[in-house]
Q: What sequence folds into this?
């Protein structure tokens, strides 16, 4: 992993962090839909990463979010699940031997692959976040509804961000 | 062994998931009051119900002992009543109405679940938030002695952090000279009749048989008898002494306890918090 990738990821982390904390935290759709765009950081980490490092980064990002949301542990747990979904999805769909692309992005992997990848990761992440937050099964419908609506919101924002930083390549 | 390593490294993503998931959930439940209260309450609803049923049987078995203690208390109250009646009313006395100034009120509660065998013992009682209970209220036993402090409350039940718990410290004093100390169960102590008073200043004189009472600092009202000194001057290595105390109350057969509501508890807490921020 060269230093350029590291710097790009640090900048991306800071950017997403600020957007999440200072903008999206105050944004909600009738208290029903709350987007968590910071998952894009974990989604866009490079392919060839050791699993432990991936988990540590995801967990650390979650803890940092928790510190600002006052919910220590919730986002950290969700991020661990997110890392697992990411690893599983990539190991199933991408050829392990030669990664043609350095990192999963819309421009590199195509809309279909990235859309499904982001949808699955975001869905499981949000599922854990909302169920840990509610912490009971009696409001199952409401929690699931919140989860799904937030999922759509986050997915929309993630795809938007990917389109904004679309790298035109010889595809 | 080698196969185990291969197995572990092949499915490392899954094992990492388990590790981080457990860490995350532990963090969540430990640090967020809401999640903790939910886990506590759900266990209390199930476990508390079961214990309540079991308790009906146990209550009958202990009926004789409870009767005795109630009779003893009745006798005590009657003596006090008699003492009050025999006050010479012919004398010119000014009557001061103190009914509106009562600071402490007692609320009787039944013990649903008792525990005294563990390192950290929690007692469950059948009064809760709807009866006006709040965390950190003092609990004493009907005869003599202190029980502990309210830990968590649900609507109808509450848990008490017993004196037999490593986090419980109760401010006490030696009755004859009012020297302060703090009552703890003590490390590596599994005797439920025994506790320790620590942090007694070095110069304080005490002898075996001295009575220990609550000091009035903290949640407990002043002067509740706690126990009798059994062994004095245990040196702790610093500038303070410790003493071993035989407790007056027996934790193993608790049936009823009194929760003490302090009318000024909130006021006191607020005041002390304010002065703490000034420091």
A:
């Amino acid at each position: 992993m060269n230093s350029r990738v590291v710097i790009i990821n640090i900048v991306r982390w800071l950017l997403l962090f600020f957007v999440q904390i200072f903008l999206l935290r105050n944004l909600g759709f009738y208290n029903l839909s709350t987007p968590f765009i910071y998952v894009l950081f974990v989604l866009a980490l490079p392919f060839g990463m050791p699993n432990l490092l991936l988990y540590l980064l995801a967990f650390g990002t979650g803890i940092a979010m928790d510190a600002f949301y006052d919910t220590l542990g919730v986002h950290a747990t969700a991020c661990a699940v997110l890392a697992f979904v990411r690893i599983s999805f990539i190991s199933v769909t991408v050829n392990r031997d030669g990664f043609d692309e350095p990192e999963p992005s819309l421009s590199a992997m195509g809309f279909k692959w990235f859309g499904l990848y982001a949808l699955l990761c975001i869905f499981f992440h949000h599922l854990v976040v909302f169920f840990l937050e509610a912490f009971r099964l009696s409001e199952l419908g409401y929690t699931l509804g919140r989860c799904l609506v937030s999922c759509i919101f986050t997915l929309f924002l993630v795809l938007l961000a990917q389109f904004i930083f679309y790298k035109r390549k010889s595809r | 062994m080698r196969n185990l390593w291969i197995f572990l490294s092949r499915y490392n993503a899954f094992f990492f998931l388990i590790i981080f998931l457990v860490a995350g959930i532990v963090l969540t439940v430990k640090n967020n009051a809401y999640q903790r209260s939910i886990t506590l309450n759900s266990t209390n609803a199930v476990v508390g119900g079961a214990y309540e049923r079991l308790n009906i049987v146990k209550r009958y078995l202990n009926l004789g002992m409870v009767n005795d203690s109630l009779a003893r208390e009745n006798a005590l109250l009657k003596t006090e009543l008699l003492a009050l009646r025999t006050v010479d009313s012919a004398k010119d006395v000014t009557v001061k109405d103190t009914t509106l100034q009562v600071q402490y009120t007692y609320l009787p509660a039944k013990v649903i679940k008792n525990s005294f065998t563990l390192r950290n013992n929690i007692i469950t009682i059948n009064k809760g938030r709807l009866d006006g209970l709040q965390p950190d209220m003092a609990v004493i036993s009907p005869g003599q002695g202190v029980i502990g402090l309210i830990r968590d409350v649900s609507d109808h039940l509450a848990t008490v952090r017993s004196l037999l718990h490593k986090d419980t410290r109760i401010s006490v004093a030696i009755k004859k000279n009012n020297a302060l100390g703090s009552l703890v169960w003590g490390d590596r102590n599994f005797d439920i009749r025994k506790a320790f008073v620590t942090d007694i200043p070095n110069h304080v004189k005490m002898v075996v048989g001295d009575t220990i009472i609550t000091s009035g600092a903290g949640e407990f009202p002043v002067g509740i008898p706690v126990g009798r000194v059994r062994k004095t001057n245990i040196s702790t290595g610093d500038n303070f002494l410790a003493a071993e105390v035989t407790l007056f109350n027996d934790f193993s057969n608790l049936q009823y306890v009194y929760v003490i509501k302090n009318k000024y508890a909130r006021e006191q807490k607020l005041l002390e918090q304010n002065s703490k921020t000034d420091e």
In short: Chain B has a mean pLDDT of 81.
